[in-house]
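Hey L., structure's done. Input below.
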Amino acid sequence: MLYQIAQKIMMQIDPEKIHNWVLGFLNKTGNSQLSWLYRQNLKASPIKVMGITFPNCIGLAAGLDKDGEAIDAFHQMGFGHVEVGTVTPLAQPGNPQPRMFRIKSKKAIVNRMGFNNKGVDNLVRNLEARKSSIIVGVNIGKNKDTPVDQGKNDYLICMEKVYPHADYITVNISSPNTPGLRSLQYGELLDDLLGDLKNKQSELKEKHGKYVPLALKIAPDLSSEEISIIAQSLLQHKFDGAIATNTTIQRDKVAGLTYANELGGLSGCPLNDSSTQVIKQLHGYLGDQIPIVGVGGINSASDANSKFKAGAKLVQIYTGFIYNGPNLIKQITKHCPQL
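Output:
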């Protein structure tokens, strides 16, 4: 009830402005008495994925807390893990505003943020400052001004800096809002990137005395052949996980609605079916050799179950969380697969 009242107010405010305000509030209250406003004590449902024992199956997807400013507050809400980022080597402002748009009737959001973040060094400071023990994944990307054929260096820079502080690292090559980024999902560029990241992982494992799994986040707008090629690359390079999927550039399920033609990635309910289909196809190639984290359009426990049935071991939420609040976490944890 409290969230429903707050949501009515928040939905009247510019989406990016209220996003930033809420993050600031969560940053200040995550370890204070005010955390009772959103704290949930949920029963643990441990599950082991990528060699990590997660307390439950539900995580916060990357993009909501890019700079890792409210990790402790999300832990209080009951998330089993938080994925921060996407972070880039250098701070960047992202695309011009306005760049985030609600399609309320479909419980959807269109965004073209463009990896706006304060840079990897700032994120590392926030990771060091967190007080909770929640599992944290770090989603890494390339700066907009870095040419695609040199993008690998940006990923390696970020990986080296966050490695000591991350429980797992996600390689984001699927955002539609950084020019040319999705081309890294194909051919020699993909194999070159994955190979060098795995080599760096081995080097950093020796340096820090711990193994941090690597996951690849892919787009929902892939053909069956492209999914097959990506799966082969993941198997060849022995990646630890796959995250399916990012936002979509398709608009067929929101055609004719206000903001439907805005450039950017569409998230929320209209993405659910296509994301689940990618998970199913990807799992068909990977089997149980490489676990899949399902994300995209989850707006209910039923949606999460569809992802599990398609082959996902964990799920993540973002837009569904915006529209439903912390109660969605509670509902999904009741249906988590267990060890």
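The chain has a mean pLDDT of 93. The chain has one domain: 2-333.

-- N.
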